Amino acid sequence: DDIEDEDSLRGNDVPGMMSLHSIAQRAATEADIADAKDRRDKILSTYDLQPPRRRYVHNCFLKATARRGDFKAALEAFELMVATDVPLNEKTFGKVLIACSTSK
Asked: Which InterPro entries does the UniProt entry name for this protein (predicted)?
């Protein structure tokens, strides 16, 4: 029930999803975080995604913040997830903790 198959969640059926995932994999600069945030926001405002896919989009952004060590962006993203009733999971919390612990 809470186990996600990343391949099925990532999917090619939502334009921008693969590029968001790619940015999250390599995020190293503030510009990468801004780009990931823009892509996250565009995907979420354009498509009516089911809760697991919405969580995946948010978690991709959180992965970018974790790689960059941007705790402020991670906490803002976490607060947005809570405010918009996105279901949280262990990956969500893990990425926030990593962002905080590697903060630059």
From this structure: PPR_rpt (IPR002885), TPR-like_helical_dom_sf (IPR011990)
